[in-house]
Amino acid sequence: MQSFTTERRNNLSVHMLPTQQYANHYVQINLINTQQTIPSAIFVMIVRLLMNSCRRFPSNRLLQQQLWSLYGAELTCRFDYKGDTQIASITMRIPHITDDKLITGTQIEAIHSALQLLAGLLYDPAVDDHGMFEEMQVQEEMAWTEHHIAHDGTDWDKVVQSRCLEWMGYEGQNRQFALEELQHSVGSYELYQHYQTLIHNPIHIHVLGDIHPGRIKDLIWEQFGCVNTPYPREEEVEERQGDPGEQREAGAMMMELLEIHQCKINVTYRTGIRYGSAWYPALFVFHTLFGATPASRLQVGLRERSPLVYQVTTTLDDFRETLHITTGTSSANVTDVLEGIDTEWKRICDGDVSERELYTAVQNVMHYVQVGFDLPHQVITNHMDQMLSGSQMTTAQFLEEIARVTPEEVAFVATRLRKEVTWILYPESEYSA
User: Of 18, 31, 281, 308, which residue has the fewest beta carbons closer than 10 angstroms?
Assistant: First the structure.
């Protein structure tokens, strides 16, 4: 499969991938909030404000009418984290219509209109002459953002994982502090100042579909070149992100009493292996074999053979070089669960990995990656991961390396793991000192 071609001017990077593989064209704008230069909640709120109106389309109804005129184009937004870097991904899907079936104009004119719409949303927000957003919209988006923050605060898997990261020295996500920052910025010029920071931070634009790269690139620079300022090189940003602050002694066990109905446990290991490194494929196979799939060691050992947990999974944080085991259980089973996790980890460290088990894990990885390999959103996500990590490893190369992983390599990466901290959220009603 062809790879993206990239052109960069100051803080704006344009990535093009011409292909006839899809029935749609895709334009994705990735807004990068590096090390949360904008407070995370305010970043979410500003992007939401931009998504819903601009001077040209001052209401959501007019915006939807414009999307309908583009043959039912779809506009979506999602938020994600890569280490300490927060990303807002604004995606427009534009149906590919052959010229003989177009009602008016040409396909290139439809893409041009789509780029005009996106540039209007980003660079021409619906603010008054004093830089103030419309109060009713601000209140609506503030309510949505507060609800979003509150939901994350009751997702106990996320909470217990964030406790471990905070303990390791990474900047915490204080929910109350985020709400206070949000409320302080609403109704003040500070909100517009944060918006100015947003459009001067790194911005990546991906275009994927049956396109003429030169013509589309000219249209992008025409529409998005109006605000284009110097920014530190990508590799300088990458060197700074995800670095922990104060270091603590590894192997700690922490317990926190909360008003919850079951124990939530997170065990965090430092892998020492970054996305794109030579040992990353072996780490990914270990992750799959250990706890990432229904056939993994932890799923079979703790959930099926000995029903000690309600669920258990492992997740990799490629940018912080950590692996998390997250599970839920009753207070009576906590000790057995922790011992079970240690037992399976040590078995793999000792080389207790059969060729058949390795084959199954590798096939699971192949299936997981290949299912999403041709999905346009995943193609763009993989490329963004490469850009943010500085890795040159393509998906095809990753799969080739996965197929070569040996039991000895899986055991080696397992021995390199260092258990940093175990955090237990414990039901207050069941605790007795």
Answer: 18
